[in-house]
Write a structure and sequence with these properties.
The complex is a heterodimer of chains A (about 300) and B (about 400).
Chain A: E1 2-11, E2 14-24, E3 29-33, H1 40-47, E4 55-60, E5 63-64, H2 67-70, E6 73-76, H3 88-98, H4 103-116, H5 132-144, E7 150-153, H6 162-177, E8 181-186, H7 189-192, E9 198-203, E10 206-212, H8 213-219, E11 222-229, E12 249-253, E13 258-264, H9 269-277, E14 282-288, H10 292-300
Parallel strand pairs in A: 3-8, 3-9, 6-7, 7-8
Antiparallel strand pairs in A: 1-2, 1-4, 4-5, 9-10, 11-13, 11-14, 12-13
Chain B: H1 2-21, H2 23-48, E1 52-58, H3 62-75, E2 78-84, H4 87-96, E3 101-104, E4 108-111, H5 119-138, H6 143-150, H7 167-200, H8 203-208, H9 213-246, H10 255-281, H11 287-293, H12 295-313, H13 318-325, H14 330-340, H15 345-373, H16 383-391
Parallel strand pairs in B: 1-2, 1-3
Antiparallel strand pairs in B: 3-4
Helix pairs in contact in B: 1-9, 2-9, 3-5, 7-9, 7-10, 7-12, 7-14, 9-10, 9-15, 10-14, 10-15, 12-14, 13-14, 15-16
The chains are: A alpha/beta (about 300), B mainly alpha (about 400).
């Protein structure tokens, strides 16, 4: 639906985007992740026509992105901005009208969207009187009021408390289920890992890993196995630790009863289980895919 | 196209409604309207003076009372005569300020603190005439013969080389020019602060994601401009109506065309300066930097303003001709020059054409600077960087 192909952008000596390529599918919640300075904001600004890329192609539904497409995008920039002295409802209606809605439709849509983001009781307040969290709600309402087909959110979780993160995350998921393609960026990979369906991780203007999170995790040649014994394993059974002979395993002992193993994907977990059982009774044997952060670090060799 | 116009109109409407509600706009409107009305009424009253007087005449001199009324009519004054019982009563009336003067028989004219320049000749002539009539009656002269004897001679006024008095025209043009200068500054700074506020509050990124930069600048300039033109036209109408009511003694017949000319130059001047204010304002990131960014503009406006005063001394100087054609100074120079001397029609046309060309150029150049600069939020940009930024 949205295709970013080999987009480049240079600011003076800095290569902000270096052949950035990824896609966003409808009804999917896509996280654009990476450290600060990876090029996330630049690629988002390119999508919305705020920055003209030096090269590459941007396509929406197969067509190059133009003014028509921009009208169907919703955007919440990292630097939030609203008219401070305008009332909330007036403000949301104004942005709806800028997106081409008629007066009546803009009014209807503004009420509906304020209701949806939980700001229905703020309609007559001035933005400058609102708390940070409420301003964020209004900002989101502005981005949503024209019912965009693609929603682009730059660092939407910045400055939110855990409760706020959950609420906003839930809302984004709802929107995705309703058919909106949602692309959001974050530099806190672990914070948003449970939210994304698809991830695009970036570093130095390039896409490092991209695809459905689940597939990335299965494709990863690493996984974690936590082995917990109900009592400390008996060292007398063998002169060496029980895991010493397992191939393709890296070991990270947590304490004497708990061992965390990084196991490569070609190792049959049954052999690990058998080896563990020889030294004592097991209380826990967990399999866990690698975290996004770990996969990212591995991919960029840091 | 229709869609673009609608977007521009949505932007313009917001500018108009929020500015019109602002305290700065309301206060300035009241101040401008009041000072305009006072500026017309006060000089008219002060120059015109009062035409209405009251005079006490001591009882027993009806012929004198009639003579006073007659002479007043000849002098173009209205004098109410009020009878007083005796000299003391008349003096008391003068002292109390109830009447302007009192006449006691043919012997005395009583003033409170000195003669009034317009009333004194009326009273003196009335007394002299009454004296003549009484003496003639005492001498047995026929009243008809006396009337013929006293009939006034009325000579016709002949001026060989009449010189038009330009003072009232100059005053109107001067007031208009000062208002125009104030309004250009006022609305220009509205555009300037509007641009800088949107930039510093970062809302511009949200806006630009939906609206092209050129539409945004056009909408802003149009909205604030309509507000300003509305205010300026209202000022013009108020001025015209006040002039109709007050009717200063020497209102030139060309007053209405002059006011229309000033309004037209305001529209042109506003379009010119507000586009520049918007484009240069976009170079600044903070309100504090904005004044520095537009310093060259302010200099041009001041140059035009103070330069225009030099027209008063020599409206036919060559620099006046140049200044009234040069777009940045034309809005201030041309109306004043036209009021003081005869401007060839082709020069007026040329000035308007040059101005329109400059405005069209600014729409393109200013739009590009705005586009290139408005997303840069760190520090002040140089014009060159903004120009290059718009291409990249």
């Amino acid at each position: 639906m949205l295709d970013v192909e080999c987009v480049t952008k240079r600011y003076g000596d800095v290569l902000a985007l270096d052949g950035c390529t990824f896609s966003v599918m409808p009804k999917r919640l896509v996280g654009l992740l990476g450290p600060n300075g990876a090029g996330k904001t630049t690629v988002m600004r390119c999508l919305l026509g705020l920055v003209q890329p030096d090269g590459g192609a941007l396509r929406w539904r197969g067509e190059p992105i133009d003014e028509q497409a921009w009208r169907r995008f919703g955007y919440m920039p990292e630097e939030r901005g609203l008219y401070p002295s305008m009332r909330v409802l007036e403000q949301v209606v104004h942005f709806a009208r800028l997106s081409g809605l008629g007066r009546a439709a803009a009014n209807r849509s503004a009420h509906a969207v304020l209701d949806r983001v939980g700001a229905a009781d703020l309609t007559d307040r001035r933005v400058e009187q609102l708390s940070h969290g409420n301003q964020q709600r209004v900002q989101l309402a502005v981005a949503l009021v024209h019912e965009p087909e693609l929603l682009v959110l730059d660092e939407p979780f910045a400055g939110l408390d855990p409760l706020g993160v959950d609420t906003l995350g839930g809302l984004m998921r709802e929107l995705a289920v309703d058919g909106t393609a949602v692309l959001f960026s974050s530099h806190q990979l672990d914070l948003v890992q449970h939210l994304c369906e698809d991830v695009v991780t970036m570093d130095h203007g390039r896409v490092v890993l991209s695809g459905p999170l689940e597939r990335l995790q299965t494709d990863s040649d690493r996984r974690h196995v936590d082995v917990v014994f109900s009592r400390p394993p008996d060292p007398a059974v063998s002169g060496r630790p029980w895991y010493a002979d397992l191939p393709g395993v890296r070991v990270d002992p947590v304490d004497e009863r708990h061992v965390r193993l990084a196991v490569s994907s070609d190792v049959d977990l049954a052999t690990v289980l058998c080896a563990a059982r020889t030294v004592g009774p097991l209380m826990r044997f967990d399999f866990e895919p690698p975290s996004l952060e770990e996969m990212f670090r591995e991919a960029v060799h840091r | 196209m229709r869609r673009s116009l609608r977007t521009i109109w949505v932007v313009a409407r917001r500018e108009m409604t929020t500015r019109a509600r602002s305290k700065a706009f309301r206060v300035s409107s009241v101040v401008m309207f009041v000072s305009l009305i006072l500026g017309i009424v006060v000089p008219a009253v002060a120059l015109g003076g009062s035409d209405h007087y009251e005079v006490a005449v001591v009882a027993g001199a009806d012929d004198l009372s009639t003579a006073v009324t007659e002479q007043a009519a000849v002098a173009g004054l209205t004098v109410d005569v009020r009878p007083a019982a005796d000299r003391a009563a008349a003096t008391a009336l003068v002292r109390a300020g109830t009447v302007d003067a009192a006449v006691s028989g043919l012997d005395e004219v009583i003033w409170n603190d000195g003669e009034d320049g317009r009333l004194a000749p009326v009273l003196n002539t009335a007394i002299a005439q009454t004296a003549v009539v009484r003496r003639a009656a005492a001498a047995g002269m026929d009243p008809a013969a006396l009337a013929a004897l006293l009939a006034p001679a009325t000579p016709t006024l002949v001026v060989l080389d009449p010189r038009p008095d330009r003072t009232p025209r100059m005053l109107i043009a001067l007031i208009g020019m000062i208002l125009l200068f104030v309004a250009l500054n006022f609305y220009g700074s509205f555009v300037l602060t509007g641009v800088v506020e949107e930039k510093s509050s970062r809302i511009v990124e949200v806006l630009l994601a939906r609206v092209p930069a050129s539409h945004l600048l056009a909408g802003k300039v149009t909205g604030i401009g309509l507000l300003g033109i509305g205010q300026f036209v209202s000022l013009g109408v108020v001025a015209a109506v006040t002039l109709q009511i007050v009717r200063p003694p020497e209102l030139p017949p060309t007053t209405l065309p002059m006011i229309s000319g000033i309004v037209m130059w305001f529209v042109l001047g506003y379009a010119f300066y507000s586009l520049l204010y918007g484009a240069l304002g976009a170079l600044a990131s903070r309100v504090e930097d904005a004044q520095t960014a537009v310093a060259p503009l302010t200099a041009f406006l001041l140059l035009g303003y103070f330069g225009a005063f030099s027209i008063l001394g020599n409206p036919d100087g060559w620099w006046v001709t140049v200044g009234s054609l040069f777009p940045p100074t034309a809005p201030m120079f041309m109306p004043l020059r036209a009021a003081l001397t005869t401007v060839p029609a082709w020069q007026v046309a040329l000035a308007v054409l040059l101005m329109l060309a400059a405005i069209l150029l600014l729409v393109r150049v200013g739009g590009r600077l705005y586009r290139g600069a408005v997303l840069h939020t760190a520090g002040r940009l140089k014009i060159r960087q903004a120009w290059a930024g718009a291409t990249g």
